[in-house]
Amino acid sequence: MSKGLLHHIELYVSNLEQSVEFWGWFLQELGYSSYQKWERGQSWRLDETYIVFVQAEKRFLDIPYHRCRAGLNHLAFHAESRLHVDEITKILESKGVTILYKNKHPFAGGSNHYAVYFEDPDRIKVELAAP
Question: Quick check: pTM over 0.85?
Answer without folding.
Answer: yes
